[in-house]
Amino acid sequence: xLSESIVRRRTLLAAAAGAMVAPMVAGRAQAAVPRIYLDPxxxxxxxxxxxxxxxxxxxxxxxxxxxxxxxxxxWSVDVRMSRTTDATVSLADRTNxxxxxxxxxxVSVHINSGGGTGFESYRYPAADAATINLHNALHxxxxxxxxxxxxxxxxxxxxxNFHVLRETNMPAVLTENLFIDTVADANLLKxxxxxxxxxxxxAQGIAYYLGLSTPPPTYSTTVDNATVGRFxxxxxxxxxxxxxxxxxxxxxxxxxxxxxxxxxxxxNVPAAGNYRIDVWHPADPGYNSATPYxxxxxxxxxxxxxxxxxxGGTWRSLGTFNLAAGDRDLVGVSRWTSAAGYVIADAVRVTxx
Length: 353
Ligand SMILES: [Zn+2]
Hints:
Layout: H1 3-17, E1 35-40, E2 50-51, E3 54-55, H2 56-74, E4 78-81, H3 91-101, E5 105-112, E6 119-123, H4 129-147, E7 154-159, H5 163-166, E8 172-179, H6 183-189, H7 192-210, E9 220-224, E10 231-232, E11 238-240, E12 251-254, E13 263-269, E14 273-280, E15 291-297, E16 300-306, E17 315-323, E18 326-333, E19 343-345, E20 347-352
Parallel strand pairs: 1-4, 1-5, 5-8, 6-7
Antiparallel strand pairs: 2-3, 6-8, 9-20, 10-13, 11-12, 12-19, 13-18, 14-17, 14-20, 15-16, 15-18
Helix pairs in contact: 2-7, 4-7
Bound molecules: zinc ion.
């Protein structure tokens, strides 16, 4: 497509949107609940960039899922994603979906490759003022989030004629979060705390752009069964992609047994205090009616039983618990139940309250 026709398309789209889409600038109150569209790059048959044992499609999904959790845990926002699993989605389907939904902003999450180091972000070359505001809000907040964990090079705010930036008719920014084929960058991308910090930075940038950012978000983290270094289970636990209600790429399952063989989700609790713990599991009539979730509270272990036959594919609260600070196996899914059916371990979310 010629650049002239691209510019024309953007202009026509902006005109067509007209009064329906008020320009959103930092500090201006929103009339309605903001609609945030998150686009984890690649997926399914398209792994994106690969290197150092990592695939771009997995990292972008991890960051975007955590970003969604942080946004939903801290502000009143609608969040929609181009994919929530390891699915193949075309570029046209992504932008068509965001346009049809009426997204107020669009953030596409990617990992860089080709040799280099650091963080950079992109907007469309002929972007309007609202897009520039989003870019100016997002870029430094993501960088600050990353730098809360490690030293990260700022490669700057750039422009590019990318499909997702060109064909979206709302402010859109694409982030390139370190280089998968550079060992030092890849080592950061393997760290759960770096992924969480990257997601938190994106959330703070989006919130700042929307004028939502006081007070700053409370701590919230999500641990999936695939989160590197944050999940452990014995070989008795199988891995499944059977249910479409799964969180992330897959989940773990085991037969009930009257013995201790828990699958553990490890969380670095930043400070002593009260935290809400939510769990995500796919549901199936063949799953367990009384799956024990064990929580290591400041006052000792506490067990909450969850019927995993129904109400799957969403966050379910186990309650609010007083937790001690520190990094440890915090939530376990125990096999020790006399009820029949597989016990499922998929994802855990911990949010400061
Ligand atoms: Zn990419």
